[in-house]
Design a protein that fits this description.
197 residues; mainly alpha
């Protein structure tokens, strides 16, 4: 049997890393970050505790990797053409993508909202969140100003609060929350080119 190539080793390493992160996400979301140990995560991933440390030095590093992956997936395409200017089509794309991810990755958002309310844990990834939100809110402020809102900064904060509220409600009661109707209303309200009433 031929020895594995460097690319094959890297593919196996990435696959194992994803397995660990997915197992951690499941446990963090179900049991909470504080109640999930490296041993539990290793067991869920069907690997040894020692091997876990070849991929992540600590539970904290693992949490940061899980959160960063989710945030990159959610916000990576906020400004699709990376020109620093938000257009209605880009905001519509983002809203559609956000709701798709919300439905597909409910465990991630359950974890996110849990730890967002725990300052001792939230501090691990607060710099990344701040960086994402500052860039996003700056573009949203300009966007709402261009759309004719009397107070674009307030509208920007209201939009962000609505997204958070939708996320929390959907995570808590997915079967009772009309997520698609809310998504369509947000698109109609913020992406269709008309003056606010």
């Amino acid at each position: 049997m031929a020895p594995r190539s460097e690319e094959q080793y890297e593919a196996i390493r990435q696959e194992k890393k994803e397995l660990i992160m997915n197992s951690a996400l499941q446990l963090f979301a179900e049991k909470g970050y504080e109640n999930s140990s490296i041993s539990n995560i290793a067991k869920a991933a069907s690997i040894s505790k020692g091997l876990m440390y070849n991929y992540f030095e600590s539970k904290e590093e693992l949490l940061i990797a899980v959160i960063n992956r989710g945030m990159d997936e959610m916000f990576g395409d906020f400004d699709q053409n990376n020109d620093g200017i938000l257009e209605p089509e880009e905001l519509e794309f983002f809203i559609n993508k956000m709701f798709e991810i919300l439905k597909k990755e409910r465990r991630f958002w359950k974890l996110y909202f849990q730890i967002a309310l725990q300052p001792s844990v939230f501090k691990f990834f607060e710099p990344k969140i701040d960086e994402i939100y500052q860039s996003m809110f700056k573009m949203l402020g300009v966007y709402f100003e261009k759309m004719g809102y009397e107070n674009p900064q307030v509208e920007m904060l209201l939009f962000g609060a609505m997204l958070d509220g939708v996320g929390i409600d959907y995570v808590m009661k997915p079967d009772l929350f009309p997520v698609d109707l809310i998504k369509n209303e947000l698109i109609e309200r913020y992406c269709r080119v008309h003056k606010p009433t």
